[in-house]
Amino acid sequence: MSRIGRLPIEIPAGVTVSVDGRAVAVKGPKGELTLQVAEPIEVAVEEGQVLVSRPDDERESRSLHGLTRTLINNNIIGVTEGYSKGLEVVGTGYRVQQKGSSVEFALGFSHPVLIDPPVGITLTVEGTNKLTVSGIDKQAVGEAAANIRKIRKPEPYKGKGVRYAGEIVRRKAGKSGK
Length: 178
Prior knowledge:
The chain has 178 residues and is α+β, with helices and mostly antiparallel strands.
């Protein structure tokens, strides 16, 4: 049995979880998320808990058991607390500034890069070099942060670029002068 999959998920106050066939809907103070559960996995709501079970010990059922439980738990955390990911812009002349709901980056290109947030994601700028991506869907927050980082990844010689908050960039020595 999956150690993670068999753990019950406590439903906090103010959150409602409803199972309709293969769809699990989670509604909370910050919004609503739905999840389509894969075929062999079964989800039930009993006594303020969500229970995820599998019918057999087939390889596919075992692999989806813990995954499904974690995805439902992530949705519950998302509608209560939300998720956020921090980004830092490092480099001389590199900066970020808010333009309405969009964000404008100056990253050493010949033009500024304007990023519009996806649906359900908010971008907030603190200072000239810090950006926070936040929302209720953990997967969407991570993907939006990764797409912003992809504009100018941190390079290994000077460490310039967009990096996650707290990310350690391995530095290379560069050419040795004679």
